[in-house]
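Notes, p. 3: input format for complexes.
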Amino acid sequence: MRLVLLGAPGSGKGTQATRLKDYLQVPHISTGDLLRAEVAAGSPLGLEAKAIMARGDLVSDAILLGMLEERLSRADTAGGFILDGYPRNLAQASALGALLARIGQPMDCAVQLDVDNELLVERIAGRAKAEGRADDNPESVRKRLAIYAQQTAPVVDYYRQQGKLTVVDGVGTLDDVFKRIIEAIAPVREVG
Ligand code: B4P
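Output follows (192 residues plus BIS(adenosine)-5'-tetraphosphate):
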């Protein structure tokens, strides 16, 4: 199954993708994780991305598409994948659509995790304490939420218009949310 997880920062995409990959037996591709690995490795791309990410801005579409293309060309994605953190704007959504059409692997479904802003801020503040991620400071979080509302929310409509969207309540325990996702994607799995 080829599935994309959508949702604001802190909505639980990365958290649920980790569980879903075991359940669906397909790789979890997080563009945030790919970028953080480049930053940790100190590669030229990582050096470029580091300050942009810390500010809470989006890294350039061209860099992201190149990275994603490389990742999707690996053999382990032949049976499907879970995409987390991409697309984040309409340009990325149409670039992804074109890429998947070219390799004959269209997206099967998009799952949006719905969580209100107040709770998002609370969750990210919790992660800031626990993990100290560079972009989890209050100023970056505000910026990331604003960018989500302006640029990423339209991506939800993009998948809705294609009849691929399912919205899942992202509030509850990790198990509750996971169960809801499994139920939401069950019809798509039966067809596939
Ligand atoms: P990401 O790594 O995608 O970061 P994120 O949006 O904060 O989501 P994440 O998956 O980490 O958090 P989650 O909701 O699971 O992106 C980071 C940066 O990379 C971006 O700002 C940008 O600069 C760059 N980037 C990435 N992709 C890009 C792209 N396509 N284009 C351009 N730039 C890009 O979890 C958050 C917290 O909530 C965790 O602490 C978790 O434990 C907690 N949580 C989750 N579910 C919960 C629940 N049910 N109850 C309570 N807590 C919960």
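Residues 9-15, 30-32, 35, 52-53, 56-59, 64, 84-86, 88, 92, 123-124, 126-127, 135, 144, 172, 174, 177 surround BIS(adenosine)-5'-tetraphosphate (CB under 6 Å).
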